[in-house]
Design goal:
- The chain is an alpha/beta fold.
- It folds into 3 domains: 127 residues, Fumarate Reductase Iron-sulfur Protein, Chain B, domain 2 (Orthogonal Bundle), CATH 1.10.1060; 162 residues, FAD/NAD(P)-binding domain (3-Layer(bba) Sandwich); 156 residues, 3-Layer(bba) Sandwich (FAD/NAD(P)-binding domain), CATH 3.50.50.
- The protein contains 19 helices and 16 strands.
- It has a 5-stranded parallel sheet with strand order 3-2-1-4-16, sandwiched between helices.
- The longest helix is centred in the last third of the chain and has 21 residues.
- The structure holds flavin-adenine dinucleotide and iron/sulfur cluster (2 copies).
- One iron/sulfur cluster (SF4) binds next to helix 3 and helix 4.
Length: 479
C-alpha cells in the first residue's frame, strides 16, 4: 500500500515508549518498548527519501535505510526485513545498541529543525516483526563445500563471519573460551540495553544451520594456534580486546577498586542464573554501597546504570573532560542521569584512600587546555582543588587494550600494530600469514558492535574469495 512519505514537517519524532526511570531502576529489563505497528509506519514515513542519504553513508554497514523505511511505511515488512538483513547480519541487535546519535540518526538531514527519523527503533521493529512472523531463517547453503574455516571468538565479529561463511557452504567451527557464545553481547553489555534472549535466539539459529560451537575452548591453552591452522583451510581471529587500562595512583590496588568488565560480567552472569562467588560475597555487588565509576565511555555508563539497579546507596561518575567531550553515546548519559546517577565532569581521581579496602576517592578538578593530537582538549589539573568522595566500590572504566596475542597464540610472526592490535588489510581482514584473517576489536581496538559485524562480513568475503582462488589445491580430509 502506498504511504504518504516526507511527513516530518507535520509529524513529530516519537520514540518507542521508554519505561519511567523509577520503574526501570528496579529491574534489568530493556528500557524501551517495541513500536506498535501504526507508530512504526508513522515514524518510518517521516523520512524525506534523500537523494544522497547521509544516514546510509554514516551507517558502517551502509544499510539501505531510505528503502527499508519506505517499505515499512507501506506496511511491506517482509520485504523491509529482506532488505535490512541483506546488509546487516543482526539488525535486531544494532537497532537496540548502535549509538545512533553518532551514526545514522546523528547524520539524518532532518535532524536539524525536525529531529531525526527514528532509524534504529524502526530497524528493530522490522527485525522483531520478522522473528514473530517466522521470516528469519539461518544460512541455508545451496551446496556444501568441502573446506572448513575456524573462527576464534564468538562475539559479533566472529558470528557475522560465521553466518556469511556458512551461507557460502563452508564448514564453520567457532571456538570461544567462554561457556556461552556471544562475546561482549553476553558478558559485557547489560541486559537493560540488550536482553540475552535476543543474542541466544541468533546463536541458536546459527547452530541449527550447521555452525559448530566449541565453548570453553581457549586457543593458545586448550588448542594450539598451529593445531587450529592444521584443522582448517582458513582461520579468522576475532578475539576482541580485554586488558583493562589502569591509572597510576596511590591506593589503586586496594580491595574494592575493580575493573569495570569484571563487575559487568558478574552482573550479567547473575542475570543468566550462574553462581558467582565474587558477587555473592559482596565484592562485586553494589547494593548499599557508595559507588564511584571512573571514565566517561559506554562501559562507564553501563557500570553506573548497573550499580543503580543493584541498589547502590549513591552512584557517582567521575569524568576528566566535560559532557560535550564524552566519548560514548550522549543518549546513554541522559538515561543514566534520569536514573539518578550523579556526574562529576572535569574531575579525576588523584588517590584511592583506605587501609585494605577503599573508603574514599580523592578527586581533583580539571580544566580543559589546548587540543591533543586527536583534537580533543587536554585536561589539566586545577591546583588545590582536591576533594574527598566516599567510596566502597570503585569501578575503573578507562578502556581496553589487546592481550599479547602473538605470545598467547605462540606465533611471533603474526604482524601487530604499535597498539598491539592485529595488523590487517582493513578491507579484507587478511593478516600477514597466509590463510589467517582478523576482524572486530582485535583489529580496530575497542570499537562498536556494528563495526565488528562489518569487519566479520568483509573478512568472510575475503576468505571465500581466497578459498575459491585456491580451489585447485588438494583438499584436507573432512572431520
Ligand atoms: P568480543 O565481543 O569481545 O568477542 C570476542 C570473543 O573472543 C569473546 O567471546 C572471547 O571470549 C573470545 N576469545 C578471546 N580470546 C580467545 C581465545 N584465545 N580463544 C577462544 N576465544 C577467545 N558497542 C556498541 O555498538 N554498543 C554498545 O552499547 C556497546 N556497549 C558496550 C558495553 C561494554 C561494557 C563493552 C565492554 C563494550 C561495549 N560495546 C558496545 C563494544 C562492543 O561490545 C564491541 O565492540 C564488540 O563486542 C566487539 O566484537 P568482537 O567480536 O570483536 O569481540
Ligand atoms: Fe543505524 Fe546501526 Fe542500524 Fe546502521 S546498523 S542503520 S548505524 S542502527
Ligand atoms: Fe531519511 Fe534521514 Fe536518511 Fe534522509 S537522512 S533518507 S531523511 S533517514
Amino acid at each position: 500500500m502506498a504511504a504518504d512519505l516526507l511527513t516530518f514537517v507535520d509529524v513529530p519524532q516519537r520514540r518507542p515508549e521508554k519505561r519511567a526511570a523509577g520503574v526501570r531502576r528496579a529491574d534489568f529489563d530493556e528500557i524501551f518498548d517495541e513500536y506498535v505497528p501504526e507508530r512504526a509506519r508513522e515514524q518510518a514515513a517521516r523520512c524525506s527519501q534523500c537523494g544522497i542519504p547521509f544516514c546510509q553513508v554514516h551507517c558502517p554497514l551502509h544499510n539501505n535505510i531510505p528503502d527499508w523505511l519506505k517499505l515499512a511505511a507501506e506496511g511491506r515488512l517482509q520485504e523491509a526485513y529482506d532488505l535490512s538483513s541483506a546488509t546487516n547480519t543482526f539488525p535486531e541487535i544494532c537497532g537496540r545498541i548502535c549509538p545512533q546519535d553518532r551514526l545514522c540518526e546523528g547524520n539524518c538531514v532532518i535532524e536539524k529543525g525536525f529531529e531525526s527519523v527514528t532509524i534504529g527503533a524502526v530497524e528493530r521493529y522490522i527485525a522483531e516483526t520478522a522473528f514473530e512472523s517466522g521470516w528469519v531463517s539461518g544460512p541455508r547453503p545451496r551446496a556444501e563445500r568441502p573446506r572448513s574455516v575456524g573462527v576464534v571468538g564468538g562475539g559479533p565479529a566472529g558470528l557475522a563471519a560465521a553466518d556469511a561463511l556458512r551461507r557460502h557452504g563452508y564448514r564453520v567451527e567457532v571456538y570461544d573460551r567462554h561457556d556461552r557464545i556471544g562475546g561482549l553481547l553476553i558478558y559485557g553489555i547489560p541486559n537493560f540495553k540488550l536482553e540475552k534472549d535476543v543474542v541466544r535466539r541468533r546463536t541458536d539459529i546459527l547452530a541449527r544451520s550447521g555452525v559448530v560451537f566449541h565453548t570453553s575452548t581457549e586457543i593458545g591453552r586448550d588448542l594450539s594456534f598451529s593445531d587450529l591452522r592444521d584443522r582448517h583451510d582458513a582461520v579468522l581471529i576475532a578475539t576482541g580486546v580485554y586488558v583493562a587500562r589502569d591509572i597510576k595512583a596511590p591506593g589503586v590496588g586496594l580491595a574494592g577498586v575493580v575493573p569495570a568488565l569484571d563487575y559487568l560480567t558478574a552482573s550479567n552472569r547473575m542475570g543468566l542464573g550462574d553462581t558467582v562467588p565474587a558477587f555473592e560475597s559482596g565484592a562485586l555487588d553494589a547494593r548499599d554501597k557508595h559507588v564511584v565509576v571512573i571514565g566517561g565511555g559506554d562501559t562507564a555508563m553501563d557500570c553506573v546504570r548497573t550499580a543503580t539497579r543493584q541498589g547502590a546507596r549513591a552512584v557517582t561518575c567521575l569524568y576528566r573532560r566535560d559532557r560535550d567531550n564524552m566519548p560514548g553515546s550522549q543518549r546513554e548519559v541522559s538515561y543514566a542521569m534520569e536514573e539518578g546517577v550523579r556526574f562529576e565532569f572535569l574531575a579525576t581521581p588523584e588517590a584511592f584512600l583506605g587501609d585494605e579496602r577503599v573508603e574514599a576517592v580523592r578527586a581533583v578538578r580539571m580544566r580543559l587546555g589546548e587540543p591533543d593530537e586527536g583534537g580533543r582538549p587536554t585536561p589539566r589539573v586545577v591546583p588545590g582543588s582536591q576533594r574527598r568522595l566516599p567510596a566502597d566500590l570503585v569501578l575503573m572504566a578507562l578502556g581496553f587494550d589487546p592481550e599479547p596475542i602473538a605470545e598467547s597464540f605462540g606465533t611471533g610472526d603474526l604482524a601487530l600494530t604499535r597498539w598491539g592490535t592485529l595488523k590487517t588489510d582493513m578491507l579484507t581482514g587478511r593478516t600477514n600469514l597466509a590463510g589467517v584473517y582478523a576482524a572486530g576489536d582485535i583489529v580496530r581496538g575497542a570499537s562498536l558492535v556494528v563495526w565488528a559485524i562489518r569487519d566479520g562480513r568483509d573478512a568472510a568475503e575475503a576468505i571465500h574469495l581466497d578459498l575459491e582462488a585456491a580451489a585447485s589445491r588438494p583438499l584436507r580430509a573432512a572431520g
